[in-house]
Specification:
About 15% of the residues lie in helices and about 35% in strands.
Length: about 675
């Protein structure tokens, strides 16, 4: 037995996320989430990891609200965010907003150092000076944080929850935007053992929605904040740029601003002279998104492509301590390796030779090693150590909470050839004990995105739970998936119902040719874009015994007008009034009468990316046709279903539905729904 056999054991596994390295390279700190005492939610805490891998992990923080967003100051003390109550306050305010806290380098009690009324996010620290920058949502029209607090109190006392929008967008993923707007504040480091951040300066008064979901960083001397900045182009369009903001004056200048490209994820070189960021060609009706690393001087001069000729999408750039190289990751053939590019020559070296998916790169100050989080389809995220110069190396794994985890099976690969000659590949999760003597049923699980890949561990979409219940799980990367070059994406641009669909059927046919797979007992499922493909499969073939559609697109013209990012979809599929062809050709609802396969529809009410109207319309179309279908609805969940209890019910319902239609068992309704 493994934790995947009992869903309650599965949700109780500790989960490692963010990773930070202390300035002297002696301490790693990770964010670890686990079940709260009441098992109704996940809470996070900070844990210390030994970079040498000798000592066991040690928990640093503990509170009911949890802690997140660790950032080291130059003296080794640790900043983090938490909604925990201040023990020094005369009266607890009962707020659930996150304040900024500091944990001394030598240990001891943490203390609050900044408490803006709307909370703190996006913390950054100057490498040498220790200057602190953070984002805080502030009510429009207010001149300082005291006035912001008065405005908030008046709104609460008046019983006002209304939002007056004057621009697009109005919501994001699972929350409404406004009335507060994110602003960037900067302050000198805390002074003395009891000090706070004194008089944080507002660098970005009245930014509108320019700083929504943006990442900021600082020059080593703390004199400049470099941040993403959303430019409002009118007609609902926004463009991602990168700007430098003087910490003393708030004066702003562009570092990356081009009508044909977008810029994000800026990182300042340790010598303070240059900035590297991700530059993306803006998607359009005829051309897909593409991206590279862009190098520019701190004064905005000398912009150049740092990864020219790389037919992959680089992301998460991080500088080497000597400013001579940049490390980054990129999806590649079902993995996400770490690469190093020499800033002067452009020479690129792939540092990791396995199929791991890496993130959270932390170069050591000595330049010899870097640390990162590594995960894969069969291993959850855990910290590792890498050499900064060796090519295609195996990482040194470091002990971490919740790892290792034994999975109930093994991982294989399936390959095939697409109709247009492209190479296709997929991961195949096989349950333990599978053999040609007792072939197992197979579940085709389609990833979201669609500009994504099955190349890492998923706590939310976990195939090993299905393997523990006797299913093989096929995880393919059809057309539009990342990591296979631009041609793999361009082949289906604007044609979701074309090559992605035929690729999925082709790779499924290749998988069921294996003697250990029972091709007469197959099902298909997916979420988001995967949910769209599940719906598309349902209206185009009856080869599967059952179909599960989570957060799937059903009616294109309806969805693209109600999603939180309508402008992005319009660039992709065109104006539906003037260019209706792609909407008509790719929308599953136009073929709804063809459905013959039993369907389980799943959706969360707070899903603003694929609004719940898609599921409601699909459900009505199924009901009026007397289709064999069920609808699992979550009133308080979003695109992913994040609550532990709801996650358990999600899997219980999916497993019961598949058991009934694929395995031929009697339908058994999950107890709590």
């Amino acid at each position: 037995m493994t934790p995947f056999h009992d869903l309650r054991d599965f949700v109780a596994i500790q989960r490692v996320s963010a990773l930070r390295l202390s300035p002297d390279g002696a301490r790693l700190v990770a964010v670890v989430s686990e079940l709260a005492a009441d098992r109704k939610k996940f809470v996070t805490a900070l844990w210390q990891i030994d970079p040498l891998g000798k000592d066991r992990p040690r928990r640093l923080t503990r509170s009911a609200p949890g802690e997140a967003s660790p950032e080291f100051l130059p003296d080794g003390s640790l900043l983090f965010t938490s909604a925990r109550p201040d023990p020094e306050a005369a009266k607890a305010d009962g707020s659930d907003t996150a304040a900024l806290w500091l944990l001394p380098a030598g240990g001891g009690e943490a203390r609050q150092v900044a408490t803006p009324p709307g909370g703190v996010s996006g913390v950054a620290v100057a490498r040498d000076a220790g200057t602190v920058a953070f984002a805080a949502p502030v009510m429009p029209g207010t001149s300082d944080l005291e006035e912001d607090e008065r405005r908030r109190r008046a709104r609460e006392d008046g019983g006002v929850s209304a939002l007056l929008h004057e621009a697009y967008p109005v919501r994001h993923w699972d929350h409404d935007l406004g009335p507060a707007q994110p602003r960037i504040f900067v302050a000198d480091p805390p002074d003395g053992p009891e000090g706070r951040l004194s008089d944080p300066r507002d660098l970005t008064p009245e930014p509108g929605r320019a700083l929504d979901e943006q990442r900021s960083t600082l020059t080593p001397d703390g004199s400049v904040v470099v941040t993403g900045w959303l430019m409002d182009e009118g007609a609902g369009e926004r463009r991602q740029t990168v700007v430098a903001v003087a910490a003393a004056t708030g004066e702003r200048r562009a570092l990356g601003d081009d009508p044909d490209h977008e810029f994000e994820a800026p990182a300042v070189s340790p010598d303070g002279r240059e900035v590297v960021c991700v530059r993306s060609r803006r998607m359009g009706y005829d051309e897909p998104h593409d991206q590279t690393l862009w190098l520019v001087g701190m004064d905005g001069s000398g912009g150049r492509d740092l990864t020219a000729g790389l037919d992959l999408w680089p992301a998460e750039p991080v500088w080497a301590p000597d400013s001579a190289a940049v490390f980054f990751v990129a999806d590649e053939q079902g993995g996400r390796p770490v690469f190093r590019v020499d800033v002067r020559t452009g020479a690129i070296t792939r540092l990791t030779g396995d199929r791991g998916a890496y993130s959270e790169i932390c170069p050591a100050p000595d330049g010899a090693h870097l640390y990162a989080l590594r995960n894969s389809v069969d291993e959850p995220p855990a910290p590792v150590r890498l050499d900064t110069s060796a090519a295609d190396q195996e990482p040194a794994r470091l002990p971490a909470p919740g790892t290792p985890v034994a999975v109930p099976g093994e991982l294989a690969e399936v390959t095939a050839t697409a109709e247009d000659g492209r190479a296709l590949r997929a991961w195949l999760v096989l349950p333990k004990g599978v053999s040609p003597i007792a072939p197992v049923p197979m579940l085709l699980w389609i990833h979201g995105g669609p500009l994504a890949s099955w190349n890492g561990w998923h706590w939310r979409w976990n195939p090993w739970i299905m393997a523990a219940h006797g299913y093989a799980v096929l995880l393919p990367d059809p057309a539009l998936s990342t990591g296979y070059g631009q041609h793999h994406i361009r082949s289906a641009w604007g044609n979701w119902g074309g090559p992605p669909y035929t690729d999925l059927l082709t790779i499924t046919s290749a998988a069921v040719e294996r003697p250990d797979i029972d091709g007469t007992r197959t099902a298909a499922m997916g979420g988001s874009f995967g949910g769209y493909m599940a719906n598309w499969i349902a209206v185009n073939t009856d080869r599967f015994k059952a179909i599960v559609s989570h957060a799937g697109l059903w009616s294109f013209d309806q969805m693209f007008a109600t999603t939180d990012e309508a402008s992005e979809w319009q660039r992709w599929f065109g104006d539906p009034l003037r260019q209706p062809q792609r909407y008509e050709e790719n929308s599953p609802h136009r073929r709804g009468e063809r459905i013959r396969t039993p369907m389980l529809v799943i959706h969360g009410n707070r899903d603003y990316r694929v609004p719940v109207g898609e599921a409601l319309r699909l459900w009505w179309d199924l009901v009026r046709q007397r289709a064999d279908a069920k609808f699992l609805y979550f009133p308080d969940e979003n695109h992913w279903v994040l609550g532990p209890g709801n996650g358990i019910v999600w899997y219980e319902t999916v497993l019961a539905f598949l058991a009934h239609h694929v395995l031929g068992q009697e339908w058994k309704r999950p107890e709590l729904v």
